[in-house]
Structures are given as structure tokens and as C-alpha cells.
Amino acid sequence: MGTVLYVAAEVVRQIAILVQPTMPAAAQKLLDQLGLSGTQDFTRLGAGGRLTPGAALGPLQAVFPRYIEPETTAAE
User: Fold this and answer.
1) Does the model's pTM come out above 0.85?
2) Rounded CA gap, 30 and 11, in Å?
3) Could you give the number of structural domains in the chain?
4) Most CB atoms within 10 A, among 8, 19, 56, 74?
């Protein structure tokens, strides 16, 4: 199970790096939650920038706001 969680976290790290140019705030939130500070650029993709197994995660928070369906009335 530990291997599965590590691979999932590593995939999230690489996706966050890839989306930084288009969604910088969301990507930074993801990287902060993975405990990565500082600049993460394309050179950190692959084996050179992998997460350290057993490293502590940062505080977890929502990356995107929750969508709440507006209440509809019977007349609509």
C-alpha cells in the first residue's frame, strides 16, 4: 500500500509541475501539500526530482473551491 501511495504522490507532483504555466496558484498549492518549497520547474521532472520516501506532507487544503448546485424553485 505504501508503494501505491508513493507513486500517486509522485504523479501528483509531476502533474503539478506540468500545469504550473497555466495554473500557477493551484500547482503551488499541490506542491506545498507535498512538502515541496522553492521553484519546481521542468528540470525537476523525472528521477532527479522525485519525492523522498517517508517524507511528511504539508497541511492539506482544498486546491479548488467546491461547486455547490444552486437551489432551484418549482417555477423554474
Assistant:
1) no
2) 11
3) 1
4) 19
**Which amino acid, one-letter code, is at 32?**
D
For residue range 10-69, list pLDDT tens digits in order: 999 999 999 999 999 999 999 999 988 777 888 888 777 888 888 888 888 899 999 999
Orientation of helix 24-33 relative to helix 2-19, angle to 10°: 150
C-alpha to C-alpha distance for 22 and 18, rounded to whole angstroms: 9
CATH number of the domain bearing residue 12: 1.10.730.10
CB 61 within 8 A of CB 33: yes
* CA–CA dist 62, 20 (Å, integer): 17
**Structural domain range at position 38:** 1-76
| DSSP symbols for 27-66 | HHHHHHHTT--S---GGGSSGGGPPPTTPPP-----SSPP
